[in-house]
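Weekly puzzle thread! Below is a chain. First person to post its structure in token form gets bragging rights.
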Amino acid sequence: MHFKDEIQQKIDNLNKPKGSLGRLEELAMQVCLIQETLEPRLTHPCHLLLGGDHGIEREGVSVSPREVTWQQMINFTRGGGGVNMFCRQHGFDLSIIDVGVDYDLSQVPGIIDRKIARGTKNFLYEPAMSEEEYEQALKVGADLVDDCAKKGCNIVSIGEMGIGNTSPSSIWMHLFCNIPLDECIGAGAGLNSAGIRHKYEVLSKAVANSKLYTLNSTQNNYALSIEHCALITRYFGGFEMVAAIGAMLRAAERRMVVLVDGFIMTACALAASQLKPEAKECMIFTHCGDESGHKRMLDFLGAKPLLSLGLRLGEGTGALCAYPIVDSAVRMMNEMNNFQDAHITKYF
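Winning reply:
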């Protein structure tokens, strides 16, 4: 019997009508496949909060000023953010990491210093980062996951803090999903219609300048090489976003569960799955936010998010809110009785 069939048999033999626990049954199947066991466990959940600034922010594509990135990073160390509250609520070990904030946070207690540079370059005119910086950011994320694993962690969620990071997310979506750019751009932290129009003009020019536009709406079987995907990721990405990709890829290598949050982290998951398609098997997509195009990006990935709460805070808050649902699926596998042991007639 194939292992997947064994899992399904165990799920179907739990004392409940077949399929009656819906998405929990699907989640249980996924976690069992990730961990390669009929008795899954969630141990020492960790949340990585990655901070970085973006050169493209200088073009007025965000309603929030750049300094909000470092101000919020300091706020997180004081326990005052949404992410802090949810980590406390659900028992997550929170790490706050400076990967590329445009401010000296090296002396701030509670912030892990992995700064690559003080923000990326402006991708309107040049690549956001060099090849060396790109590789360094991937390694930062991978190393952070290794550190989590040493603590006994087998489930990780990732959040971000970076003013302007909906811009690279929109471009990644545009280029990876072959979706027109104007359908990939939203309000971010609260742009009005004029602001969204300006954002589109800037990002459209940036894509044209990059000469990485390979889209053809009439093209069938649209696909990019892994090398081209890496170039797109490096050219437009933020340090915190590429570190998130590195973390997702290493977590998948280690067969850890990866909880994917909103628009920006879904864009990172999209990039990660372009670079290594099998990594998606370890990802649980937790939330569909209000950002324009988020649902279309999830559809492209074949992902069914667990929640739709209208969250657009970032920080990984949607992933943290969804954790109890994943926990319920795992508990179902380990704590529910089966028909035989409960002496109940199996009626299907």
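Puzzle host: Confirmed. Bonus trivia for everyone else. Strands lie at 46-52, 93-100, 111-113, 155-161, 257-260, 283-285.
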